[in-house]
Design goal:
The complex is a heterodimer.
Chain A: H1 19-31, E1 35-39, E2 45-48, H2 50-56, H3 60-63, H4 68-71, H5 75-91, E3 100-106, E4 112-124, E5 127-136, H6 138-160, E6 164-171, E7 174-180, H7 184-187, H8 192-196, H9 211-224, E8 226-234, E9 240-251, E10 257-265, H10 267-303, H11 309-331, E11 337-338, H12 339-351, E12 359-362, E13 367-368, H13 370-390, E14 400-407, E15 414-421, H14 436-449, E16 452-458, E17 461-469, H15 470-474
Chain B: E1 9-13, H1 17-29, E2 33-38, H2 41-50, E3 55-59, E4 61-62, E5 65-66, H3 68-76, E6 81-85, E7 102-104, H4 109-121
Parallel strand pairs in B: 1-2, 1-3, 3-6, 6-7
Antiparallel strand pairs in B: 4-5
Classes of the chains: A alpha+beta, B alpha/beta.
Chain lengths: 491, 126
């Protein structure tokens, strides 16, 4: 039996045998774009149209007379299908009748195929027949899966990505936020829902000075089609954050325009720019200070009637020390330096000619800020110079031991730095007049770091002790120089 | 010389030890008396409370602060002074202080002598 011939079941929806209706049923049957399968009350296939063949792969002649449950119903639904039929035959009701449901069928080749299924029951010649119309959902399902995949990516991007996205629409005169991606909460601490429902607005968190500029810029972008702006906002914890907003106007299919945009947190980038600027300023400042010092020393050296050789030597050594500390700090991009490196670096110039290191140093790891490093470095250099001339690092000396430790807690914490020279008994001579180097050794740490210094000329050798508030050793460059106010608040 | 015939006494406020020492030596060799050097405005103020002061040289940036509070005090007391800074722009917040004489480091002894002469010696009330 083929599709071109009427089937042996006489289907008559209105129970009317008129030829007109029979002819119409025939036309409808032939024109159907859906698959149609008719099942009798035994559960066997009594009609199977061309579209059904296209979906399931069975020719009509293969399908007719077979039990539907065996033919196309998947294993897991087969018993339910049979039970449903039995239930209907016994009680005259079936839950799937008259509904559209999505279900999978089995093709002749064993592959599953997603279909939309609608079943209606009618009585013909005193027995019920069941008419199923089916649509192949394969393409629809593939499109849905594709949409799900893209939506998943969008969810990932808008929940976890580094950039916040938003959509703005114009309502009367105002630009109103229509959507903002949820990652705004992790990036900037604002809640997307609160913003969308106007519980609070983005603009009320704008840095007040920047608001007029932002409002103007957005209007320009709305007129010109795209643009970018940078401004500050105050986040929910009161911190100032730098924002870069990029926007583009798009025209929807209904002719309305909306603005899609992204928000990036530029705070870190701004901070490092700021740090760069500050470093340049600081460097300039330091160079000038150093030149001032050198100029002063040169003038001092030149002031006497005769050229003071010692003064020239100590000037040279001081300039060399400044250059060395400068070099070490520059190598570390003006970040804090470890005290051990500072001490060893200061000693390196002294021990270049000797094979064994006469300077032993030991102490806990401690990072010293740039300003304190300049001070401590200068003092160490002066101690080295003196030790090389008169003490532990002179030809008669037997070395220097440098130790440091941290005493006290938190605000009270002090860096204790000790310097012990060893020389043969009786060779220590306390100078009658304090030279400039000794003034520096005693004066510089109290003056610049608010520390305390004691020096002693003992029989066994010269001793130096310093106690410096730890907090004064750890200020980073710029903080100590009084520009903390730059941070975050100024452009 | 001050009105009493004694040398003028000049306050130095400068946070770098070596520069402070150098300024002190320079001024002393020029025949002035020196107050300080003071590394912070607190030290400077405590000197000013106790001692006679005829003039001052102020570094602008002092560690975590500036010398502006000292400058304001000196303006109040009609004590002449000038700023000496290592920064390109002096960072003076107070606008009234921006009219005060300001010199940039490095400054040699000759320029220092001239600056002291014109702003401090010349600024003494008749």
């Amino acid at each position: 039996m083929t599709d071109d011939h009427p089937t042996n079941s006489s289907i008559d929806p209105r129970g009317d045998d008129s030829l007109v209706n029979k002819g119409l049923a025939e036309v409808v049957y032939r024109c159907m774009l859906d698959a149609m399968i008719v099942m009798d009350h035994h559960g066997n296939v009594v009609e199977f149209n061309k579209r059904a063949t296209e979906i399931f792969g069975y020719e009509q002649r293969e399908a007719l007379g077979r039990e539907l449950a065996e033919l196309i119903v998947p294993d897991e639904f087969r018993e339910a299908h049979r039970a449903g039929l039995a239930h209907f035959l016994a009680h005259g009701v079936g839950p799937v009748l008259g509904q559209r449901i999505e279900i999978e069928g089995i093709r002749k080749d064993g592959e599953r195929v997603p279909v939309e299924l609608a079943i209606a029951a009618e009585e013909v010649d005193g027995e019920p027949v069941f008419v199923a119309t089916l649509r192949d959902l394969t393409q629809l399902k593939a499109r849905e899966a594709e949409l799900d995949r893209v939506r998943g990516y969008l969810d990932d991007v808008s929940n976890y990505g580094p950039t916040v996205f938003f959509v703005v629409r114009r309502r009367e005169q105002e630009l109103v936020l229509a959507w903002i991606s949820p990652n705004i909460s992790t990036i900037l601490g604002f809640d997307a829902t609160a913003l969308e429902t106007n519980e609070y607005t983005w603009d009320e968190h704008l840095y007040p000075d920047d608001l007029p500029m932002v409002v103007r810029a957005r209007e320009e972008i709305w007129a010109e089609g795209q643009g970018q702006l940078e401004y500050r906002i105050i986040d929910l914890s009161g911190r100032i954050r730098w924002i870069r907003e990029s926007q583009r106007v798009i025209t929807l299919s209904n002719g309305e325009r909306e603005l899609v945009g992204s928000i990036e947190d530029m705070t870190d980038a701004r901070r490092s720019e700021q740090r760069e600027r500050m470093l340049r300023r600081e460097l300039d400042h330091r160079v000038k200070n150093n030149l001032q010092i050198i100029l002063g020393e040169c003038e001092l050296a030149a002031a006497g009637e005769v050229i003071d050789r010692d003064r020239i030597v100590s000037l040279t050594s001081r300039v060399a020390s400044m250059a060395m500390v400068h070099q070490m700090l520059a190598e570390r991009a003006w970040k804090p330096i470890s005290l051990k490196e500072l001490v060893e670096g200061g000693g390196r110039a002294m021990i270049s000619e000797s094979d064994q290191n006469p300077i032993q140093c030991d102490g806990p790891e401690l990072q010293v800020g740039v300003d304190a490093a300049m001070t401590i470095g200068s003092v160490i250099n002066e101690l080295m110079t003196n030790a090389a001339k008169y003490g532990g690092l002179s030809p008669d000396g037997s070395g220097v031991v440098v130790n440091w430790s941290i005493e006290g807690e938190e605000a009270e914490a002090q860096l204790l730095l000790s310097w012990r020279e060893s020389v043969p008994q009786g060779s220590v001579v306390e100078p009658e007049q304090k030279n400039f180097g000794m003034q520096l050794i005693e004066g510089m740490i109290p003056y610049e770091l608010e520390g305390e210094v004691t020096v002693e000329f003992q029989d066994k050798g010269f001793r130096f002790d310093a106690s410096i508030p730890l907090s004064n050793c750890q200020y980073e460059i710029g903080r100590l120089r009084g520009h903390a106010s730059d941070e975050g608040t100024s452009s | 010389m001050s009105a009493s015939g004694k040398p003028l006494r000049i306050l130095i406020v400068e946070d770098a030890f070596l520069i402070g020492m150098d300024l002190k030596m320079s001024l002393e060799q020029m025949g002035y008396e020196v107050l300080g050097p003071a590394p912070s405005s607190a030290r400077a103020m405590s000197l000013l409370q106790r001692e006679v002061c005829h003039g001052a040289i102020l570094d602008v940036s002092l560690g975590r602060e500036t010398s502006e509070s000292v400058a304001d005090f000196l303006v109040d007391k009609n004590v002449p002074f000038f700023f000496l800074t290592g920064y390109n722009n002096a960072n003076l917040v107070d606008e009234s202080l921006q009219e005060k004489p300001l010199y940039h480091k490095p400054m040699n002894r000759e320029s220092l002598a001239e600056a002291v002469q014109s702003h401090i010696v010349g600024g003494q009330a008749a």
